[in-house]
Amino acid sequence: MERRAWTHRGALALLLAGGILITGCSGTGTTTDSAVDRGVAGSGGPAGGKRAPAAPTAAPGQQEDGASEAEDGAARESVAPDYLSTFALDVDTASYGYARRTLGDGQLPDAGTVRPEEFVNSFRQGYEQPEGNGFSVSVDGARPDAAGWSLVRVGLATRAASETGERPPAALTFVVDISASMSEPGRLDLAKTSLGILADELRDDDSVSLVTFSGEAETRLPMTRLQGNRTTIRDAIEELEPADSTNVAAGIEVGYREAVEGHREGANNRVVLLSDALANTGETDADAILERIGDARKEYGITLFGVGVGSDYGDELMERLTNKGDGNTTYIADETQARKVFVDQLPAHVELRARDAKAQVAFERKTVKQFQLIGYEDRKVADEDFRDDSVDGGEVGPGHTVTALYAVRLREGASGRVATATVRWLDPKTRKAHEETGSVETGAIDGKLWGKAGERLQVTAVAAYFADTLRGGDLPGTPTLGQLADRARKLASSTEDSSVEKLATAIEQADRIRGGGDDEAPDDTGEGELG
After folding, report:
1. Exposed (0-12), middle (13-18) or buried (19+): which is 116, by Cβ within 10 Å?
2. Closest CA to 274 of 203, 207, 342, 227
3. Residue 305 and residue 272 in contact, taking contact as beta carbons nearer than 8 Å
4. Is the pLDDT of residue 165 over 90?
5. What sign does the CA torsion over 348, 193, 96, 457 have?
């Protein structure tokens, strides 16, 4: 088999796929498709901040001491707080997968690797799918055990892939880490198993190429059609053996070079990076790596899918690579998870429904006193860049459901609209911009959360509270770990969902590691800041 060895060089392209949506709709779940450039424009930064969690955003007209705008209108004009939350869509799930792996090894995950949105987006939501290629939006909510606060769940669903398997062909460049650290069980062996599973699932008209990297990068297989070449492809995968150091930059550069040379018009062109992301040779800064391969990004539209492995995993590097390049990551710890990613979820990781998707949520000053987006700190976008289509958003594939939660504190006696959400995305083929807008009313978020709200909303809340506890947050109404585990066990039984059962196990493991000391319920007054 012909081989070509290259050291890292050249300027190539990175466009990564993934998305998170935060959106709203009316209390009845209806949505409207708006014309381009319709909706709310604004300035200032998005809600949230760097992990650990930021304090909530106060509403315009609500000063820190609680004085109203009418009481001190002149002062409020100069320092009016932002009422907008703007960010890029994201469908990553790696944080939750890696946390489960770490807890299974008897350790708590590092707080910096815990991203609540990735915990939440790891679970099925059951949203209604749209008939076309855009988004359906839905919103609901409920009141946890915290005075004055509500959880608002907003989310989207894209139309699933065709049951007949019809889709454009895929041109996939596998970039595989074969460094010394990958020799440990659950790393290169799992990567090879995953590649074999994926190769079996691909169609005859799909194409693959194979690049490996350790101290430098090497092309093991140029872009090759599956038809008539499956044995050759499997042999190339089986020959992979661990080598020495980890030069992630070399692997990505050569991988994108190979993807450009093997680019297929009309196909889904993607680079699939499988690594523990423990870079120790060459360029190790994500921004610098992306800059080297940035020239061909818009020309070829090649997207990146990051697959993390290993108990010691470079989460920060992989996350930054995908976030800065508009991509998505997942984490696999065993063959069962590999089959889920490369068989059950294959269309979502290969096809696209939307490019550069962003969302902007405008809260109503008359009804909302404070709000906080739970997670998504790494995906913030300046409010004024919402409709600037040169500013990167996220990519979303078919069959994705994406969810975000807000902690919202309503004004006393408030009634009416809570928020208006607008989602903007580009058609993957035409690059035409589309928007979908909806709103939510106070009556839609007024019921009790535990035991009264829908089961999927309760699962979402458990996942979010669990993540926030792991990263040291203090959301109002957060149950203890023991209480969360009990709720998860009951939900696993009522939903008959094995993923919820695994969530309960992970929470129990965290509770044991922390010594089971959370036997006191938290202060549920809901007063003060969110954390």
Report:
1. buried
2. 342
3. yes
4. no
5. positive
pLDDT of 57 reads 65
- 142 forms beta bridges with 151
CA triple 324-330-332, angle to 5 deg: 145
Q: What is the dihedral of CA 239, 244, 247, 253, to 10 degrees?
A: -30
What is the strand order of the sheet 170-177 is part of? 4-6, 217-225, 207-213, 170-177, 268-275, 303-308, 328-331
Q: Are 455 and 463 in contact (CB under 8 A)?
A: no
Whole-number Å distance between alpha carbons of 269 and 42: 35
Residues paired with 355 in a beta bridge: 426
Q: How far is 12 from 6, CA to CA, in rounded Å?
A: 14
Residue 213 has pLDDT above 50, yes or no: yes
3-state class (DSSP) for residue 361: strand
More confident residue, 287 or 374: 374
101-to-108, 499, 506 alpha-carbon distances in Å: 10, 14, 9
CA distance 100 to 341: 16
Instruction: Name the least confident of 94-108, 155-169, 250-264.
Output: 155-169
Closest among 478, 454, 509 to 124, alpha carbons compared: 454
329-333-334 Cα angle (round to 5) = 125
pLDDT reading at 42 higher than 70? no
Query: Would you call 294 exposed, middle or buried from its count of C-beta atoms within 10 A (0-12, 13-18, 19+)?
Result: middle
Residue 436, C-beta contacts closer than 8 angstroms, at least 6 positions apart: 23, 31, 32, 33, 34, 134, 135, 137, 422, 423
**Token pair of 31 as six digits:** 């949505």
Task: Name the phi and psi angles at 352, rounded to 5.
Answer: -130, 140
DSSP state at residue 343? I
Return d(Cα 362, Cα 369) in angstroms, integer: 13
- State pLDDT tens for residues 169-187: 999 999 999 999 999 999 9
**Dmax over Cα atoms in the chain, in whole Å?**
79
Do the beta carbons of residue 418 and residue 363 sit within 8 Å? yes
Structure tokens given for 360:
């902007």
Statement: residue 1 has pLDDT above 90 = no
SS3 for 400-447 is: CEEEEEEEEEECCCCCCEEEEEEEEEECCCCCCEEEEEEEEEHHHHCC
pTM for the predicted model, two decimal places: 0.80
Please give the Cα distance from 451 to 522 (Å, whole number). Answer: 19
